[in-house]
Amino acid sequence: MSDMPSVSAAPTLRETAPGFAVAQAILKPRKARPFYGRHPWVLDTAIARIEGNSQDGDVVDLLSESAKFVARGIFNSQSRIRVRLYTWANEEALDNAFWFRRLRTALELRKQLGLIDPEGGARLVFSEADGLSGLVVDRYTHWLSIQVTGLGMARRLDEIVALLVEAAHPRGIFVRTEKGVAQAEGIELRDGLYWGEAPKGPVFISENGLRYGVDLAEGQKTGFYLDQRDNRRAAAEYFLGRRVLDMFCYSGGFSINAAVHGHAHEVLGFDSSQKAIALARANAELNHAHNVHFDVADGFKALEGLAAERQRFGGVVLDPPKFARNRAAVDEALRAYHRLNRLAVDVLEPGGILVTCSCSGQVSREDFTYMLVGVAQQTGREIQVLEMRGAAPDHPLAVTCLESEYLKCFICRVI
C-alpha cells in the first residue's frame, strides 16, 4: 500500500487489555463441533453459561462442556451472536499485534489481486472471510470507509483505525453503521468522518475503464457496491444493440457498463432514491453515456407500469436491496424475489437477457434457483441460466463460514 499518500500522524492507541480471556463461555453438550470446525459465530442457544465477570466487548474463551479449550473470541450479551471467534490457538492473544497481523494479511491478498490501484476502489477487509468478524473496510482512492457490524470491533475502533493508518496510509477514514445491525449488536450509531481529512465533494474512482463519483458521507453502504465489479462488466457483454432496463440502479454501475462496454441501444435506470439518481446522472455524463436515462421510481411499481404500457426490453437487470436479514424472513423474501422476477420476465422480449441478483445472505443459491423455477412455470417462459456468478474476489468466501457467500448474480436467457 506504499503508493497511497502518507499522513502526518496516526491516532494514539488507547490502553487495551493484553488480549487474553477474562471469562469463559461454556458450551452445552454436543454443541462444540461447529466451533472445532472453525465457524466464527457462537449463538446464544449454544452456550450453557458464562463463568467469570465478562462485560460486553471483553475477550472470552470458548470451552467445551468438559472444559476443554475450543477458541477465543469477543463476548456480546446483546447479540444473538453471543461470541464472535477469532483464534483457535490457546497461546494467541487478541491484542493489537493480532489485529495488525490480520489486517496486513487481508491487504496482502488485495495486492496479489492487483486491486491496490490509487485511482480505484477495493474491499480491503471482508469480515469473517478475512478473520475479522464484524469489520468491513473499503478503499476509495486515498480514503477508507469502515462498516462496523460487531460490537467487539466497535469497542476497538480507535485501535483498528490507528492500525489501518499505519498499514494503508489513507488521507481520511469514514465510519458507516447500518441501523438494523447497530440495534441487533448494541452499537451506537456513528456515521461520518472518523479520522483525517474529508474529500472536497465526491471521490472519483476508476472501474473497468469507467469513472464513478462515490459519496462517502451519505452514499449507500460504504459508498459504492464494489462486490458487483466483475458482474457489471460480464453482464454488459450480453447487451449489444439491446434496449436495457436497470432496476434499483443506485449510481448507475450496470447501466453505464451496458451503454459503454455493452453498446446497448438504450438504457433506462430506476431507483427510489433521488440522491442515487442524481449521482447516476452525473456518472453517466462523466462517462459520456448519452443514451442512458435515469428516473426516480419504486422498482416494483415501475415494472408494473412498464408492463401495463406493453413496453419491451432486450435486457433487464435486477439488483434489489437485501430482502431477508434473518432466517425468519426468507420465505417472505423469496416471494418478493419471485414477484420481482416475474414482473421482469413480463417486460422481456423473447430471447431477452435477465440479470437477476440477490444480496440476501440468508437466501441460498439453491433457494434463488428454485425461485426462478417457479417464475418459469408461472409465466410459461423458458429460463436458461447462462452464468451463475458471485461477488468479486476481494469479497472472498470463507469455507468455514458459508454465510460469507451472500451475493448471487445469475445471467439468464428468457425464451
Helix content: 25-40%
Q: What is the domain total for the residues?
A: 3
The whole-number mean of residue pLDDT values reads: 93
Strand order of the largest sheet: 16-15-14-17-18-20-19
**What's the CATH topology name of the largest domain?**
Rossmann fold
> Could you state the CATH homologous superfamily of the largest domain?
Vaccinia Virus protein VP39
- Outline: globular
Query: How many strands appear in the DSSP assignment?
Result: 20
CATH architecture of the largest domain: 3-Layer(aba) Sandwich
User: Largest beta sheet, briefly?
Assistant: 7 strands, mixed
Span between N and C termini?
48 Å
Separate helix tally: 11
Strand content: 25-35%
Structural class of the secondary structure composition? alpha/beta
Give a topology summary.
Blueprint: E1 23-27, H1 33-36, E2 41-43, E3 47-51, E4 59-63, E5 69-75, E6 81-87, H2 96-112, E7 121-126, E8 135-140, E9 143-148, H3 151-155, H4 157-168, E10 172-176, H5 179-185, E11 192-196, E12 203-207, E13 210-214, H6 229-236, E14 243-247, H7 253-260, E15 266-271, H8 274-286, E16 292-296, H9 299-308, E17 313-318, H10 330-347, E18 348-358, H11 365-379, E19 383-389, E20 408-414
Helix pairs in contact: 2-4, 6-7, 9-10, 10-11
